[in-house]
# Entry
Amino acid sequence: MGPTGNPNQEVELLSECISLVANALDKQAFTTLFDHYAPLIRAYSLAQEPGADLVADELVQEVMIRVWLKAKSYNPCLSNINTWLFRLARNCRIDYLRRNGRFASGIDPTEIFNQIEDDSPSPFLLASQSRLQDDIRTGLENLPQEQAQILNKVYLEGKTHREVSAELRLPLGTVKSRVRLALKKMQCLIAR
Amino acid sequence: MIRNHPGDELLSSYSAGSLPLGQALCVSIHSEFCTNCRKKLKRFSQVGGELMLRLNRATVSLDLKNTILNKIDEDSDSLERDHQDMSYSGKNKVSNVRSGAGESSVPRGLRQFVKSDYQEMPWRRVAKSIHNIELFKDDENTKVEILKIKSGGSVTTHFHLGDEYTVILEGSFSDEDGLYQQGDFLVRNSWDEHTPVATQDRDCICLAVSEAPLQFAGFFKRLLNPLIRLSYSQN
# Structure
């Protein structure tokens, strides 16, 4: 685990670091963020392209520089810091694929994937957010292996359902229903 | 009132960044119209954040760390300027909300293709009451286009050779299953047979993504699908 071992304290500590970077360009705080997130970003890149060390290093650099530059746009009331980091990493990875010709030319895929998510502030938002986070965490811990495996392929390896279905030799419908079951288990489908 | 939404498995793939581009565009545009799906996207990104935390951390070389720290040090001045520029205080959020009087009626997610007005686009006639603008080909088999169905006009009964995704941008249309309005998201699977008809009051403009599996290409495809036949015969 990270700096403290307790996930909620960890989120608090890291959020504090982000605000120090945002408000005081604090390099010490940035180093703390780096030590925590860089190995995860690197692992995220390697999950999609095992063995591609240079690509992974490049992604770490892209994402961490953006953390430095965009710290001010992070609003702890609107999203969890891990979610924010994940979105940055996801967008950088998509952008990397674009620059390397993985998408049809002339299209900016980051524009397409960068749909702003719900951002309406509500007095209960923080509370419901951390409750959801606990649910997701507990849900993930108790997920049957067959569902966890598919979530990992979709989220971390960046595979389409069709690719997952071909790789695991499962019908497409089974892949989709396992994703739905997993989301349900994590209480992600309950309106709050 | 939007009644037709993308399934949770599509929304989560979108959040994961792993949805094919054409489908992702449909999900993105639908979500601009739909608060509920935006809420879901946020939860599904949170899943991504948690999954990333669970990865086995990969060692980062001291070299890489120093390079990045130096970069921040060296470029401190210029980076600081960017820092100011990039701290958009909700700029994105505002431009994303689809209301603003006088603002373009084109969803933000489509503006890399349609700057301000559908009418100014180079529409191409593909059938009696149908015009299209092809946006891009997602890969060799998937076509992403905007379709305009003239008010009261219908699309000839057609089969799909792969899945077809549609989001209504303006106007409305109905088919055997019901009435669809602005923001509605529809998926039709291969071999679903249907006849969409635009309502009488105005033209219907929609985003359409159609997959056409390669194995159906050629004579067989042209024979089966009048719409595809028309649009391909003019290429």
